[in-house]
Write a structure and sequence with these properties.
- It is a single chain.
- With 173 residues, this protein is α+β, with helices and mostly antiparallel strands.
- The protein has three helices and four strands.
- It has a domain of 84 residues: Bacterial Protein-export protein SecB (Roll).
- A four-stranded antiparallel sheet has the order 1-4-3-2.
- β2 and β3 form a beta hairpin.
- Belongs to the SecB family.
């Protein structure tokens, strides 16, 4: 006769997942076609598109490890020198992050969370430009790792400049 195997209690020994997406939402949405309807007569092909991307994060509740990440997409379409459209989207996500190491927090906030948000934001931007009467803007995948590295490098450079300014020659009175 064998001894029965002890059964694990539900939830016992389980660590919280490192990332929980609690909600995703549109924080701000704007579409302008400042030269409509005349711009449609001037369009011979799709407008030239310029896109900018930004990621921001804020702490909502430090004790509960609750954060908000905002993915900002701005797209401007031009036909020649004229602006065909300006589309702006700020897409937010409320997340819980259970980072085991403090240095894992920022990569999760600025790389992983935006990576999860991007397909939804891309779809909204595409629908918005299409519904505005223009060809849909279909964004290619974004390298959030490179975006994060540029952010870190810019912050380090700014800190170095501040330190150099603080250590400058002292004035005499």
């Amino acid at each position: 006769m064998s001894d029965p195997q002890p059964q694990a209690q539900p939830g016992a020994g389980q660590e919280a997942p490192p990332l929980v997406i609690n909600a995703q939402y549109v924080r701000d949405l704007s579409f302008e076609a400042p030269n409509a309807p005349g711009i449609f007569a001037e369009m011979r092909s799709s407008p030239e598109i310029n896109v900018s991307v930004d990621v921001q994060a804020t702490t909502l509740d430090e004790a509960r490890k609750l954060y908000e990440v905002r993915l900002k997409l701005n797209a401007e379409g031009k036909v020649g020198e004229k602006t065909a459209f300006i589309a702006e989207l700020e897409y937010g996500s409320a997340v819980t992050i259970n980072a085991q190491q403090p240095d894992h927090l920022n990569p999760l906030l600025f790389i992983e969370v935006p990576r999860h948000m991007f397909p939804f934001a891309r779809s909204i931007l595409s629908d918005m430009t299409r519904d505005g009467g223009f060809p849909p803007v279909v964004l290619q995948p974004i390298d959030f790792v490179a975006l994060f590295r540029r952010r870190v490098e810019a912050m380090q450079k700014q800190q170095q400049q501040q330190q150099a300014g603080d250590q400058g020659p002292a004035g005499t009175a």
